[in-house]
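Re: that backbone. Tokens:
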């Protein structure tokens, strides 16, 4: 089911959100409708106010947010293969497994979060 779009006060605001839903980005839509870009960003913040800020920013951002992952999915696959080759390696701590299998030096909590993904 789609989102129920609220009624906007002005036709310009309605056109703005209609163009956004069609896939246009905020700055070009604002320029096309002759709206100040800061006003356009404020409108989108208010429209997506019920969503968490991080998901709204992630959807509207050009670059990916946050720091890149230290431990990728390929590293996890390498560690699993390294463990499964020798059964006795499964008793080693996660830090040792990451260091010997992939050459990654990471803390225990970081490794747990990566395995949880």
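Recovered sequence:
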């Amino acid at each position: 089911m789609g989102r129920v779009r609220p009624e906007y006060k002005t036709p310009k605001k309605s056109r703005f959100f209609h163009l956004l839903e069609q896939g246009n980005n905020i700055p070009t839509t604002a320029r096309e409708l002759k709206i100040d870009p800061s006003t356009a960003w404020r409108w989108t913040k208010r429209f997506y106010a019920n969503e968490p800020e991080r998901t709204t920013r992630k959807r509207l951002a050009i670059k990916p947010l946050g720091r890149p992952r230290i431990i990728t999915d390929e590293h996890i696959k390498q560690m699993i293969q390294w463990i499964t080759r020798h059964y006795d390696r499964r008793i080693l701590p996660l830090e040792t497994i990451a260091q010997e299998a992939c050459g990654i030096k990471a803390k225990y909590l970081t490794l747990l979060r990566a395995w949880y993904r």
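Residues 96 and 105 are 9 Å apart (CA to CA). The mean pLDDT is 78.
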